[in-house]
Amino acid sequence: MRWAKSIRWINALMVGGAMVGCHTPKEIKYLGDADLQHYRNNALEVDYPNVDQETPAGVVHSIRPRTVKDEEEIVAWDMPLAEAIATALANNKMIRTRAGTAQLLANPTNSPSVYDPSLRATGFLFGNRGVEAALADFDANFSTSMLWGRNEAFANLAALPNQVNTSETGVFNSSIGKAIATGGNVSVSHNWNYLGTNSPSALFPSSYAGNLQAAFTQPLWAGSGVEFTRIAGPSRQGLGGLLGVNQGVTIARINEDISVADFESSVITMLRDVEDLYWDLFLAYRQYDAENANRDSALRSWREVRAKMEVGASGGNAAAEAQARENYFDTRARVELALNNIYVTENQFRRLMGLPVNDGRIIRPADNPLEAEYHVNWEMSLAESLTRRVELRRQKWQVKSLELQRIAAENACNPQLNFVSSYGVNGFGDKLISSTNNDGVTSQGFNSAYGTLGRGDQTSWTLGLQFAMPIGLRAARAQLENTELQLIKARTGLAAQELDISHELAEAIQRVDIAYANARTNFDRRVASERRVQATQAEYEAGVRDATVDLVLRAQASKAVAEIAYFTSLVNYNKAIIELHQRRGTVLDVNNVSLAEGEWTPAAQQEALRRAWARSYAKPNEKLDTEPAEFSSPVPYPKNDLFPGVPMNATIPEVPSPTPSPLGSSGEPAAATVP
């Protein structure tokens, strides 16, 4: 009955609470008048960051850009191509390219820069770690803590009805642990527990109990070995209980090399764009010169026709004068457009080199384009492309990374079997530190806790194995299969890249040859147009019947077009050559550009010197082989499977071993061996 009444009361309280919860909230009244208009007006208001940064001097001191209306005298800056490249390299910490200009303006964070390799090297997030962060897994970890406490509780003892148990505690823990290259972990810990109590059963009202312990854990199956640790890092469970296989020092080093390859690719693109714009600016000047010469010729023709019309000579009628006048203004408009093209192209060139808009000078190319024929050897160029292209180097690093990850993933498919061990020395005492161990109670003497610890007569140890295995190992096997598929895709992609590179190289060679042939043809056209102008002008001045001013004007216009066509084809020829160098992977070499690290900090130099001395004094152990397998090379890996000109299905003959020649290296008979 008592439980039934309790249940009824509980039900009544729940129903009452539900009814109260269904009521609408009580209206609250405030003093004064107010509205929410402030929040409506400011919810989506545009705010600006409070960033104080000095504007670059090239922007602050830039002069107004040049236009065709300017009449002041222009100071020319004769710039060689080498100076243009050096200027671009010096000014562009953010790598500027013609295609990446919009991205740099919209989102500089994702644009390539000189900081990218360093950003990768100093990465610390999981999946994006640099070498230093990967090496941090092997740093010794030190931890310590000190806690105090007090507790009072009624004893509830019939023999001691007024007893209140009081205890004061103090806990000190200190440990240092370190992961080792084999995947194991070594740690040393030191602990003290203080207990002060008024319990009548305690032998010592206050006591210190603790130990000094060393522990060692070593994986014996999954996650074991130096090779796995180099690739994946120290064995640790990741998301889903899997062992990660891409967080080791080796993979971090490969990722840094990939970032260097990406940076080099951006620099190559920038250098090609600089050279292309250099020749575009050269062409703009040549177009201006041709249009200017055509305008001067048109002006002379107009004056000649007008002079003949004024004296009533043959060929000086009103129609001819009007045609000559119209032709002059047409050529003058072309000159204005050509001059504006110089200013626009020069501004683009300045932007690509990181120069201000206008510094009082106008850049004028000082180098002339190459006019001689450029001969290309297909076999040598193909071998060079397959060894020097930065895209292939990047993809090969990806393949090498996946090869190593596959080794670690295969290791992770094994069960977890760990060897665990520890050894400790225990201590106990009435006081933490005392000059004597005699406590006046026991025969062993527990007056000093550190004295007891120093005697070493109270020890502890553990030794054993720990085994864990998910039945089926499906997650680990899925990881292995996924890594193998990535590796297959990476190798297939590498083969596809090599095929595409061979086609790109072939197209580049074709462009060089057609550009040179087109330049020679346009040169002959230029010479022919010059002779046409001379002949037509002479016939017109001599009063030949069929020679009209229209033919003279047409010849002059044709000469200007032929002049522009020749320089256009010549510029295209030089652009084709730099494209050929890009397809061969030799852009940096032909421009004398090399990539190198910046200067080290003094602390890094001292540490490197210390380690160098340590390695110099080390002695090799003939019975211990710890040298890891080589996975990188300071020079491009040579392609030894190329047989240019041999059909795909043809049998490659074996090259016979060379036989000793009876002649020495100088062609003289070899000296006889004296028995």
In short:
Helix content is 49%, strand content 13%.
Secondary structure: number of strands? 8
Strand order of the largest sheet: 2-3-4-5-7-8
Q: Return the CATH topology of the domain at 378-399 and 476-590.
A: Helix Hairpins
Structural class: alpha+beta
Q: How large is the share of residues in beta strands?
A: 5-15%
Helix segment count?
A: 17
- The string of secondary-structure elements, in order, is HHHEHHHHEEEEHHHEHHEHEHHHH
Largest sheet: 6 strands, antiparallel
What's the CATH class of the domain at 378-399 and 476-590, please? Answer: Mainly Alpha
Q: What is the residue-averaged pLDDT?
A: 84
Which regions have little confidence, pLDDT < 50, spanning 5+ residues?
655-675
CATH architecture of the domain at 378-399 and 476-590: Orthogonal Bundle
* Terminal Cα span: 126 Å
Rg, nearest Å: 43 Å
Q: What shape does the CA trace take?
A: elongated
Measured as a percent range, the helix fraction is 40-55%
